[in-house]
Amino acid sequence: IKALTFIRIHHGNNMMNIYVKVYTNSPFLVCMDLALSQKEVIDPNYLWIGPNGKNLKGQSYVNLTETGKLMVRGFQEFMSGSYTCTLSYKTINTDIQEEREKFKTYKFMVYAYREPDYTYQISVRFTTKECRLAANGQFFEELKKILNDLISDLTCHVIEPSYKCHVIKIPKHGLLDELFVTFQVNPFAPGWEAVCQQISYDCEDVTNRRVQEARDLIEEFFHKQTYVLKHEFRNVPAIHYIDHSFEVTRIDSCRPGFGKNDDTHNDCASCCVVCDPGTYSPNNEVRCRICTSIRIKHYGAKSC
């Protein structure tokens, strides 16, 4: 899977924010600015320091080229943080035979991120003979079973299903009793972990694709109801789907240790970015919480 990389450049202090998808390789971080790269550089020397002040030369998880470019392989939460390169090089004034050593520092803030997990909130409406009808509950139970059977092969399932009956005043049609049905389509039905066993990287690309397919199947199912009512029923059933009542909204959630932050990470606003030191996320919430009881010094904390 090719990593999507988001880069933000802070010109004032040569700092860049870079977002790397978990389990992928970072882009090459270049220890040189554009202006200097257009010039002759004499005796360049590169010193890369990673998070926690560690010298990265010789580390097994990095690819460090002789021209000072750094790639971090198989990026994970704990690899997030500050990556600093100090470039030393010489300038020679041939007129007076003077040699000077110069230094430049380049700082990169590198963050692990994941795609959010998708769940779809769906609402549909049905006409019914009356709200007190016992068949309403039976119909709802049957509908849940049909929908779950429809998407079970995708290891998706219906969660948080509910319905309410309301009396609706419709212009020029008097009063109608309608069932308002809502539910969520979720990709984590029992057995979903088996889908990921053959995958060495994170599985959310697969689960998101499957839940999108499940959403499409359900949408197609409801759209077909209109055709069936018109062409296959001589008498309209007491409870039937209301055409064009299908509505769907995507709900994002983040894995523990990750969260969204439009302010801090506005260049990766749709991403679930690793929680910063001092924050944590214990569950599938969308935002990292601030921890006040202890001092969290690492990225990706799941508890406080």
From TrEMBL:
InterPro entries: Sp38-bd, ZPBP1/2_C, ZPBP1/2_N. Its main location: cytoplasm. Keywords: Cytoplasmic vesicle, Glycoprotein, Secreted. GO terms for cellular component: acrosomal vesicle; extracellular region; zona pellucida receptor complex. It holds the Pfam family EGF_Sp38_C. It comes from the Eukaryota. GO terms for biological process: acrosome assembly; binding of sperm to zona pellucida. It is found in: Cytoplasmic vesicle, Secretory vesicle, Acrosome; Secreted. Residues 17-114 form the Zona-pellucida-binding protein 1/2 N-terminal domain. Residues 254-304 form the Zona-pellucida-binding protein 1/2 C-terminal domain. Belongs to the zona pellucida-binding protein Sp38 family. This is Zona pellucida binding protein 2. It comes from Terrapene triunguis. The gene is ZPBP2.
